[in-house]
Design brief:
Blueprint lengths: L2 H7 L4 H24 L6 H38 L9 H10 L1
Helix pairs in contact: 2-3
């Protein structure tokens, strides 16, 4: 994978990255079977495919962490907006009112 390809990974969506991982894994599997049968001349290709998979997974996890951070920030903001007001007489009076019924 060339440097330009690595820079393009930043702009890809999560679905595209997942597709790339599947494609790279299929390519690596084909390369492994060809190496076993003796058809593969460039055995370094297997190592390169594994590195490509790792690169794509790294960007995929980075994007997933960004999404999780954004959701957590929204939850924190929502929690700050929620204000719990206790009953005027306190919890004790509410329990007494329920037992009288």
């Amino acid at each position: 994978m060339k440097r330009n390809d690595i820079n393009e990974l930043r702009t890809k969506t999560v679905d595209e990255l997942k597709r790339m991982v599947v494609d790279f894994r299929n390519d690596a599997e084909k390369a492994r079977t060809e190496a076993i049968t003796g058809k593969l001349k460039n055995t370094n290709m297997i190592k390169n495919k594994k590195k490509d998979i790792a690169r794509v997974l790294t960007f995929l996890h980075m994007k997933a962490n960004v999404v999780i951070d954004q959701v957590e920030e929204k939850v924190e903001v929502a929690e700050k907006k929620v204000v719990v007001n206790p009953p005027a007489g306190g919890i004790k009076k509410v329990k007494e009112a329920k037992t009288r019924e």
